[in-house]
Amino acid sequence: MDFNNQMTDPVDKDQVFAKQLSEVKAFEFNEGVANVFRDMISRSVPGYGLLLHMTGLYARVFVQQRSNIYDLGCSLGDVSRMIAEQTSALDCSILAVDNSPAMIKKCKAQHAGTRHIQWLCADVQNIEIQNASLVILNLTLQFIDPDKRADLIGKIFRGLNPGGALILTEKVVLEDQLDNQRMVQLHQAFKKSQGYSDLEISQKRTALENVLVCDSDSVHRQRLEQAGFSEIYQCFQCFNFNSYLAIK
Ligand SMILES: C[S@@+](CC[C@H](N)C(=O)[O-])C[C@H]1O[C@@H](n2cnc3c(N)ncnc32)[C@H](O)[C@@H]1O
After folding, report:
1. Where along the chain do its domains lie?
2. Is the distance from the beta carbon of residue 31 to the nearest atom of ligand 1 less than 6 Å?
3. Please, are residues 117 and 80 in contact by the beta-carbon 8 Å criterion?
4. 102 near 77, Cβ under 8 Å?
């Protein structure tokens, strides 16, 4: 199976950082990014297609009848659409949330016909989570203020039903500096192999400074444990990207 081409919508090429910029501004999920986001994420996150496929499998295993599913930081809604496909026979609702108006506008236009997904433009820190069987935080927690991350994970834990699951995927920082440098080097090699130039890689890195703030593996695990999760598994790693399955 080609895990990188699961969504059939047309994909515009990411050229956001292709030209030399006089000033590199802080990264935003604005309209320019939303227009090319599918291409950007699949060429920037190693294994993104597999992660999407895995989300469908989690939905099959964890989604409960008459429960809610939350896709927090849904971007263009591909995770929600994958879950919707896997849960079509169940009586459940998917709430897909993103605080970027450009992303939610495109979700509503692109997935208009997809059953049982509600698209909401809101800060994930302000929404209520209840009767949840599955919550997805796919590459979103890293954009939340580090001091507020524990509150969000705690709220998700309280809103999950017993047996429900949180899927948390993040770019991580490795605690040993040399290990970290090695993974960063490999991630850069991945991006170059996907056609990004040195200029694009370096300008995007500058734009993401202080916007995407990575935690280490141990910080993620401690936070999940402190929230109360009884089972925590690392189900995916590719270079400096980890995905955790935490079950209540
Ligand atoms: C890397 S993207 C997530 C990718 C997406 N989950 C997927 O798998 O395709 C991060 C998303 O989180 C959103 N985001 C960041 N902070 C947010 C917040 N506080 N509330 C809601 N959405 C947020 C951004 O607008 C962006 O669309």
Report:
1. 17-248
2. no
3. yes
4. no
Cβ–ligand 1 distance for 99 under 6 Å, the answer yes
Looking up tokens 């109360």, which residue turns up?
228
Nearest CA, atom 27, ligand 1:
75
* Cα-to-chain-centroid distance, residue 231: 21
Nearest-atom index, ligand 1, CA of 100:
25
pLDDT top residue among 228 and 10 = 228
- Report the DSSP beta bridge partners of residue 244: 168, 234
Regarding the beta carbon of 98 and ligand 1, being less than 6 Å apart is answered yes
Nearest protein Cα to ligand 1, atom 1: 139
Report the nearest-CA residue for atom 20 of ligand 1: 123
* Reported pTM: 0.95
SS3 assignment, position 125 = helix
Centroid of ligand 1 to alpha carbon of 248 (angstroms): 23
| C-alpha dihedral sign at 66, 243, 109, 144 | positive
DSSP 29-98: --HHHHHHHHHHHHHHSTTHHHHHHHHHHHHHHHPPTT-EEEEES-TTSHHHHHHHHHTTTS--EEEEEE
For ligand 1, atom 24, name the residue with the nearest CA. 73
**Mutation probe of ligand 1 site: the residue of 105, 106, 143 with most atoms within 8 A of C-beta:** 143
Which amino acid would we find at residue 106?
Answer: K
At 204-240, the pLDDT tens digits run 999 999 999 999 999 999 999 999 998 999 999 999 9
Sign of CA dihedral 15, 17, 19, 22: positive
User: In terms of CATH, what superfamily is 17-248?
Assistant: Vaccinia Virus protein VP39 (3.40.50.150)
